[in-house]
């Protein structure tokens, strides 16, 4: 599915939040290595390596969520079960 089709959906159990944008992402910060956990599966992501970025809006506030792959986004939205 094209990543743009996730726009407008809400995460499982949080109908107050809406996906604004989903894009492939790499965060380049020379001399620094930043990591974040995948929002769905908890896998540690090195943000300078390719991953997926979801911009989520909830009650007027936008936040960034990081995912290791598209199947994690689908599971987070309740579209499929995670293995």
TrEMBL record:
Domain of life per record: Archaea
Pfam families: DUF7576 (PF24461)
InterPro entries: DUF7576
Protein name: MYM-type domain-containing protein
């Amino acid at each position: 599915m094209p990543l743009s089709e996730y726009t407008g959906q809400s995460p499982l159990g949080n109908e107050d939040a809406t996906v604004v944008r989903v894009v492939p992402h790499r965060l380049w910060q020379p001399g620094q290595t930043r990591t974040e956990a995948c929002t769905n599966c908890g896998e540690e992501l090195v943000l300078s390596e390719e991953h997926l970025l979801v911009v989520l809006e909830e009650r007027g506030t936008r936040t960034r969520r990081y995912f290791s792959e598209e199947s994690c986004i689908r599971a987070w939205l309740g579209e499929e079960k995670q293995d």
